[in-house]
Design goal:
The structure is a single chain. By secondary structure, this protein is α+β, with helices and mostly antiparallel strands. It has one domain: outer membrane lipoprotein receptor (LolB), chain A (Clam), CATH 2.50.20.10. The protein contains six helices and twelve strands. It has a twelve-stranded mixed sheet. β1 and β2 form a beta hairpin. α1 runs parallel beside α4. The longest helix has 13 residues. It is globular, with a radius of gyration of 18 Å. The two termini are 19 Å apart.
Length: 240
């Protein structure tokens, strides 16, 4: 999975308008004590609309035939709603230092090991249609089917499976680079885990912990410095 997807996912979680129209066939087959996909989507929308900033720690695992041996990473992230739109920053600390920042228009990716910083406009990224989706330009239901949990997914999880609700997103476009997204959601409507499977069956698992709600005051001028990064002198800058 291309790491440029990760900041966009945060923009999606933070700013997308979740739609609640889902096929009656799915809702009627669910147990009465479990929320339907439409209900989960509605709760997510209501909860995240109230949040102005959010920080977290994460672990990441990527595996699949195209990616070779399993790759792991971890770090922390922060995002905020500002007058200019959502801002996202991911700091990878393991296995190598990387900094990814998105302002909804560009993604800046600093790779310490390569001594490079890549700046990519949103409209020229490999996952063009996802940028528009995850920054809130299109309703979720226009691009994804909202489905119950898919039992074929990975069972790796950091919390009891029974304590979390699950929502599967299946792209409506057959040529989508993403085949499936699954969200694990706690009782407070916080997303605790994301699992993505791409067109090449590469599986990316993200587990979130140490989540803090509204750690920033978006009106504080210092917030801008959090979502900016100046690479060390001598870093190769690549603009795409």
């Amino acid at each position: 999975m291309n790491k440029t997807l990760l900041p966009i996912l945060c923009c999606f979680i933070f700013s997308i308008g979740f739609a609640t129209d889902v096929s009656e066939a799915y809702g009627s087959s669910l147990s009465s004590n479990k929320p339907s996909p439409a209900q989960l989507a509605s709760r997510l929308q209501e909860y995240y609309q109230k949040i102005t900033s959010l920080s977290f720690s994460f672990t990441q695992k990527t595996s699949g035939q195209m990616s070779g041996r399993q790759k792991t990473g971890k770090g922390n992230g922060i995002l905020a709603k500002t007058a200019q739109g959502p801002r996202v920053r991911w700091n990878y600390t393991t296995p190598d230092r990387q900094v990814l920042i998105s302002d909804g228009q560009t993604i800046s990716m600093y790779f310490e090991k390569l001594n490079q910083m890549i700046i990519t406009p949103v409209d020229t990224a490999q996952i063009d249609f996802l940028f528009a989706l995850f920054t809130g330009a299109d309703p979720l239901a226009d691009t994804f089917h909202l489905l119950p949990h898919h039992e074929g997914g990975s069972q790796e999880i950091t919390e009891s499976h029974d304590s979390l609700n699950t929502l599967q997103l299946a792209p409506k476009q057959p040529d989508s680079q993403i085949k499936q997204i699954q969200l694990w959601i706690d009782e407070e409507s916080l997303i605790r885990r994301i699992e993505l499977i791409d067109f090449f069956d590469t599986r990316t698992i993200l587990n979130f912990s140490n989540i803090t709600i509204n750690p920033l005051d978006a009106r504080d001028a210092a917030v801008a410095s959090i979502f900016s990064f100046t690479p060390p002198e001598g870093t190769e800058i690549i603009k795409q």
